[in-house]
Design goal:
Number of helices: 11
CATH architecture of the largest domain: 3-Layer(aba) Sandwich
Number of domains: 2
Structural class: alpha/beta
CATH topology of the largest domain: Rossmann fold
Distance between the termini: 26 Å
Shape: globular
Strand content: 15-25%
Number of strands: 11
Helix content: 25-40%
Radius of gyration: 19 Å
Strand order of the largest sheet: 3-2-4-11-10-9-8-7-1-5-6
Largest sheet: 11 strands, mixed
């Protein structure tokens, strides 16, 4: 998934790239809207009045849906954006692209197959915390040897596996879970949950159903999501994890929104934590976002899953596929 801070791209180029690299074959409706936006001077002018990070395609598309605007036809979409621009802009400024995709747990779990000790989960950029419930979802891994199932849940996470992924024989024992986010979402707040729903692409009915099932699970035992910065506040949250557990610090599609200097400082922070206690660091980000993970650029929309900074797999951004790289 692309880094929408820009890298020197104009707003039309960002929307064309989104259509070609992220949406083609996955969301025809959004692909058409992004192509329409990229060629429309009036919409582009309005987007360019916003700060750079707030011009993101996912943010515009979700904001229109959040306001009950049309997404099936570009002409209607364009009219809504122009006529309701103040409301659209306010929503885009107030909200963020916090896609809380529980399916990502399916690609993270194999990296902890041999953890041994009970786990303490700490997610950076946790949004509403739906990726903190590794032990309460059902996993269905499709492999060349057949289907490998784990758990029993109303939230089912399918994942196609290629390569010698170390699929676990049982679900992990999680004894502590917490998240950290600058702007956490409340899983018990209907408006926050509706925003999460609007971030799911329209054609992805399975993801939408999974989101609702994951929300129900989280609402039964809401996770603690601390409000804070991933540099200055991570050590204090990590210090709350029980000493007898392996602390797993993880993140997906988070660091791409940060400058390179902040990313490097975050890596140093995590490594300092690892020097003080039993810790595993899992990053699931676009290639090269984490130093040393510039691999897997030969396929569209791939993330790189790394354990302690070492790439171990390529993943589909929403968790539906995993390609293991090493024994």
């Amino acid at each position: 998934m692309a880094d929408w801070r820009g890298h020197g791209l104009t707003t039309p180029e960002v929307y064309r790239r989104m259509a070609a690299e992220e949406l083609r074959g996955l969301s025809p409706s959004y692909e058409a809207l992004c192509l329409g936006v990229s060629a429309d001077a009036a919409v582009i002018a309005r987007l360019d009045s916003l700060p750079g990070p707030k011009r993101q395609p996912n943010l515009l598309l979700a904001a229109v849906r959040f306001l009950d605007g049309p997404i099936a036809d570009f002409a209607a979409f364009r009219s809504f954006v122009i006529d309701r621009w103040e409301d659209v802009a306010m929503t885009m400024l107030e909200r963020r692209t916090q896609t809380n995709e529980a399916g990502r747990c399916a690609v993270l779990l194999p990296a902890l197959a041999a953890a041994g000790r009970p786990l303490a989960l700490l997610e950076v950029g946790a949004a509403a915390g739906l990726c903190l419930f590794w032990d309460r979802y059902e996993y269905r891994y499709s492999t060349t040897a057949g289907e490998h199932r784990l758990g029993a849940s109303t939230a089912v996470l399918p994942c196609a596996v290629t390569g010698p992924a170390p699929l676990p024989g049982e679900l992990p024992r999680v004894i502590w879970r917490a998240g950290l986010d600058l702007h956490p979402l409340d899983v018990c707040d209907d408006a926050d949950v509706r925003w999460l729903e609007c971030l799911v692409w329209p054609e992805h009915a399975e993801r939408f159903a999974r989101l609702r099932a994951a929300v129900d699970i989280a609402r039964a035992d809401p996770p603690h999501i601390a409000t804070g910065d991933l540099l200055t506040d991570l050590p204090a949250v990590a210090a709350q994890a029980p000493a007898e557990a392996t602390l797993v610090v993880f993140h997906s599609a988070v660091l791409a929104y940060l400058d390179a200097e902040v990313r490097a400082a975050f890596v140093r922070t995590v490594r300092d934590l690892a020097a003080a206690r039993a810790l595993v660091w899992l990053s699931n980000e676009a290639p090269a976002v984490v130093p040393g993970t510039d691999v897997g650029r030969d396929g569209p929309s791939r993330f790189v899953l790394a354990r302690d900074g070492v790439p171990v797999a390529l993943t589909q951004p929403h968790g539906s596929a995993l390609t293991w790289l090493r024994p």
